[in-house]
Design brief:
The chain is an alpha/beta fold and 338 residues long. Helices cover 43% and strands 17% of the residues. It has helices at 11-23, 62-72, 86-91, 93-116, 120-125, 157-176, 198-207, 227-240, 257-271, 302-308, 316-329, 331-337; strands at residues 2-6, 27-32, 52-56, 76-79, 127-133, 180-185, 187-189, 212-215, 221-226, 246-249, 254-256, 284-287. The strands form three sheets. Strands 3-2-1-4-5-6-10 form a seven-stranded parallel sheet, with helices on both faces. It has a three-stranded mixed sheet with strand order 7-9-11.
Length: 338
Amino acid sequence: MKILVTGGAGFIGSAVCHHIIRKTNDSVINFDKLTYAGNTTSLAEIESDPRYHFIHGDICDQPSVARVLSDFQPDHVMHLAAETHVDRSIDGPATFIQTNMVGTYVLLEAIRAYWNVLDHARKSNFRFHHISTDEVYGSLGRDGLFSEDTAYAPNSPYSASKAGSDHLVRAWHRTYGLPTIISNGSNNYGPRQFPEKLIPLMILNALNGKPLPIYGNGKNVRDWLFVEDHARALHLITTQGVPGEKYNVGGNAERTNLQVVQTLCGILDELLETSPHRPHARLITFVADRPGHDQRYAVDTTKIRHELGWEPSVTFEDGLSRTARWYLDHASWWRDIG
């Protein structure tokens, strides 16, 4: 099968491309605008594989989307292209509305035109998988989990733009019959993540003896999902999921932000025995909280576990150690994008 991946040079997108090439017999067409968070270096290990193709393009550019669909004739589309950083959405929401909502609309319309003229067999087997976030559900209290039936209540410009794109995808399925699937993932971490995100930011700051800034009191809770586990889930949903359905994907690893950073500091203390900044936990600094900061996210993964047989395979501690080691071993990657 040929799978078109939008945003395949980003963090999760590159993990998806690696998974497809290394773990399946499918081919992948990576369609990416290469914004600040897109990095073709993340794909250097697979770029020479004949099953991998990179196309520089913008999902907001309908002729470019139509052209890549026509030229490569994908069997499935995995839509990961998005602006994702909450802090950036607070400072400049317009880009998030344009990419996440308008871009998804343009993509849906181009795909609908492409899908409508496929032969019966290909039309029946085609899937459009929209990859979203658990942030669309809002904030949880101390108890409970987000299920696929949880009402949407986004609280940041980022999550609102993703909620809007989710609704568009659902509407195109209900109105036009387009075979769409939506997945909502929890907080991802792992190799090749842009250093504005919590875990890589803490790693690089610790290496340089800089403060490790934590919002508020550090008690905000997230469910952490290793990116390679997520990539495996996303391919499974695309190829075996049911059109019109939603699937929550989580790591079953709830941690406060403070716990995450403290655990990471312990890992770095072991890996960097000669560092003058040990113990790294002394670098932890509490800063003014983010506006509208959601208290807790946690997802119920019962559906994907029972229906598709997926569950996370990497523990948080192992995944965090693997992530730290990757950044220590790949300084050229993050120095080039700094």
